[in-house]
Specification:
This protein is mostly helical. The protein has helices spanning about 25-40, 55-65.
Length: about 70
């Protein structure tokens, strides 16, 4: 019995709408800040965190103690 295999097109997660240009993180952050200011909602609400695991709570606490903001 001879099997015939069909070649499938490679799957990629790259955006088809992007123009393959890299964006510097600083530029990206400024763009996000600008768009948030335009909408009048500068900070989006976080989830309530009621169902967080102990390890997730510990991680977020460590981030906060290190001066970070999740």
């Amino acid at each position: 019995m001879i099997a015939v295999f069909e070649r499938r097109q490679a799957v990629t997660t790259a955006s088809r709408t992007s123009k393959d240009k890299a964006v510097a993180f600083d530029d990206f952050a400024r763009d996000i800040a600008r768009r948030r200011a335009e909408t009048g909602q500068p900070d989006l609400p976080h989830n309530s965190g009621k169902r967080r695991t102990a390890s997730k709570k510990a991680l977020l606490e460590a981030v906060e103690q290190a001066g970070g903001r999740w």
